[in-house]
Write a structure and sequence with these properties.
It contains 2 helices and 6 strands. It has about 140 residues and is mainly β.
Protein backbone atom coordinates (compact mmCIF):
# COMPACT_ATOMS: atom_id res chain seq x y z
CA UNK A 1 0.00 0.00 0.00
CA UNK A 2 1.35 3.40 -0.84
CA UNK A 3 0.56 6.83 0.48
CA UNK A 4 2.89 9.10 -1.42
CA UNK A 5 1.16 12.26 -0.20
CA UNK A 6 1.70 11.26 3.44
CA UNK A 7 5.47 11.01 3.59
CA UNK A 8 5.92 13.73 6.21
CA UNK A 9 6.14 12.21 9.68
CA UNK A 10 7.14 13.92 12.92
CA UNK A 11 8.08 11.84 15.95
CA UNK A 12 8.20 12.88 19.60
CA UNK A 13 9.79 10.26 21.84
CA UNK A 14 10.31 9.39 25.47
CA UNK A 15 11.57 6.12 26.94
CA UNK A 16 7.95 5.00 27.34
CA UNK A 17 6.20 6.15 24.15
CA UNK A 18 6.70 7.67 20.70
CA UNK A 19 4.03 9.98 19.33
CA UNK A 20 3.80 9.99 15.54
CA UNK A 21 2.17 12.95 13.80
CA UNK A 22 1.33 13.00 10.10
CA UNK A 23 0.28 16.59 9.28
CA UNK A 24 -1.34 15.65 5.96
CA UNK A 25 -3.92 13.55 7.84
CA UNK A 26 -4.81 16.21 10.40
CA UNK A 27 -8.33 17.68 10.14
CA UNK A 28 -7.90 19.88 13.22
CA UNK A 29 -10.60 18.25 15.34
CA UNK A 30 -8.70 19.59 18.39
CA UNK A 31 -9.44 16.46 20.43
CA UNK A 32 -5.74 16.30 21.33
CA UNK A 33 -5.67 19.93 22.45
CA UNK A 34 -8.83 19.49 24.50
CA UNK A 35 -7.54 16.27 26.04
CA UNK A 36 -4.02 17.39 27.00
CA UNK A 37 -3.55 21.12 26.34
CA UNK A 38 -0.16 21.18 28.10
CA UNK A 39 1.16 18.58 25.63
CA UNK A 40 -0.65 19.60 22.43
CA UNK A 41 -0.44 23.37 21.88
CA UNK A 42 -0.79 24.53 18.25
CA UNK A 43 0.51 28.01 19.17
CA UNK A 44 3.87 26.58 20.29
CA UNK A 45 6.79 25.21 18.22
CA UNK A 46 7.17 22.35 18.41
CA UNK A 47 3.47 22.03 19.08
CA UNK A 48 3.89 18.68 20.88
CA UNK A 49 5.91 18.62 24.11
CA UNK A 50 5.50 15.36 26.02
CA UNK A 51 7.35 16.45 29.15
CA UNK A 52 6.63 14.07 32.02
CA UNK A 53 3.09 13.21 30.89
CA UNK A 54 2.24 9.57 31.57
CA UNK A 55 2.29 7.32 28.51
CA UNK A 56 -1.17 5.95 29.39
CA UNK A 57 -2.63 9.48 29.38
CA UNK A 58 -1.00 10.24 26.03
CA UNK A 59 -2.26 6.98 24.51
CA UNK A 60 -5.80 7.63 25.72
CA UNK A 61 -5.93 11.08 24.10
CA UNK A 62 -4.17 10.02 20.89
CA UNK A 63 -6.66 7.20 20.44
CA UNK A 64 -9.40 9.88 20.18
CA UNK A 65 -7.79 11.42 17.05
CA UNK A 66 -10.42 10.71 14.38
CA UNK A 67 -8.11 10.97 11.37
CA UNK A 68 -5.19 8.89 12.59
CA UNK A 69 -2.90 11.91 12.22
CA UNK A 70 -1.69 11.10 15.73
CA UNK A 71 -0.56 7.55 16.49
CA UNK A 72 1.64 6.09 19.19
CA UNK A 73 4.16 3.31 19.72
CA UNK A 74 4.75 2.05 23.25
CA UNK A 75 8.28 1.22 24.50
CA UNK A 76 7.35 0.45 28.10
CA UNK A 77 5.83 -2.99 27.65
CA UNK A 78 2.25 -1.70 27.58
CA UNK A 79 -0.10 -2.88 24.86
CA UNK A 80 0.41 -1.51 21.37
CA UNK A 81 -2.23 0.71 19.82
CA UNK A 82 -5.10 -1.56 18.80
CA UNK A 83 -7.83 -1.09 16.23
CA UNK A 84 -11.40 -0.87 17.52
CA UNK A 85 -13.67 -3.79 16.77
CA UNK A 86 -16.06 -3.85 15.14
CA UNK A 87 -15.28 -1.17 12.58
CA UNK A 88 -17.68 1.78 12.60
CA UNK A 89 -18.44 4.66 10.25
CA UNK A 90 -19.78 7.87 11.78
CA UNK A 91 -20.94 10.72 9.52
CA UNK A 92 -20.28 14.24 10.82
CA UNK A 93 -22.87 16.83 9.77
CA UNK A 94 -21.26 19.09 7.20
CA UNK A 95 -17.99 17.19 7.52
CA UNK A 96 -16.21 13.93 6.88
CA UNK A 97 -16.96 10.32 7.67
CA UNK A 98 -15.04 9.09 10.72
CA UNK A 99 -13.87 5.50 10.31
CA UNK A 100 -12.64 3.50 13.31
CA UNK A 101 -11.69 -0.16 13.35
CA UNK A 102 -9.53 -2.54 11.40
CA UNK A 103 -10.16 -1.24 7.88
CA UNK A 104 -8.49 -1.28 4.52
CA UNK A 105 -9.21 1.82 2.44
CA UNK A 106 -9.06 1.50 -1.34
CA UNK A 107 -8.50 4.11 -4.03
CA UNK A 108 -11.09 4.72 -6.76
CA UNK A 109 -9.69 1.80 -8.76
CA UNK A 110 -10.08 -0.63 -5.87
CA UNK A 111 -6.38 -0.71 -4.97
CA UNK A 112 -5.63 -0.76 -1.23
CA UNK A 113 -3.94 2.46 -0.10
CA UNK A 114 -4.18 2.33 3.69
CA UNK A 115 -4.69 -0.31 6.37
CA UNK A 116 -5.41 1.56 9.55
CA UNK A 117 -7.54 1.89 12.66
CA UNK A 118 -8.71 5.48 12.17
CA UNK A 119 -9.34 7.64 9.12
CA UNK A 120 -11.51 10.49 7.91
CA UNK A 121 -13.06 10.13 4.48
CA UNK A 122 -14.35 12.99 2.37
CA UNK A 123 -18.14 13.23 2.21
CA UNK A 124 -18.39 16.48 0.22
CA UNK A 125 -16.38 15.61 -2.90
CA UNK A 126 -14.16 18.73 -2.58
CA UNK A 127 -11.04 17.05 -1.18
CA UNK A 128 -7.78 17.16 -3.12
CA UNK A 129 -6.71 14.10 -1.11
CA UNK A 130 -9.76 11.94 -1.90
CA UNK A 131 -10.89 9.57 -0.66
CA UNK A 132 -9.51 11.20 2.51
CA UNK A 133 -10.77 14.48 3.93
CA UNK A 134 -8.51 17.53 3.64
CA UNK A 135 -11.17 20.03 4.76
CA UNK A 136 -11.74 21.10 1.14
CA UNK A 137 -15.33 21.90 2.10
CA UNK A 138 -14.07 24.52 4.57
CA UNK A 139 -12.04 26.43 1.99
Amino acid sequence: MSETSEQELHEYRTDAITIEWRPSRCIHSARCVQGLPAVFNPKRRPWIEIGDTAADSLAEVIHRCPSGALRYVRHDGAAAEAFDAPATVTPIRGGPLYITGDVVINDFDGNPIRHDGRATLCACGKSNAAPFCDLGCKR
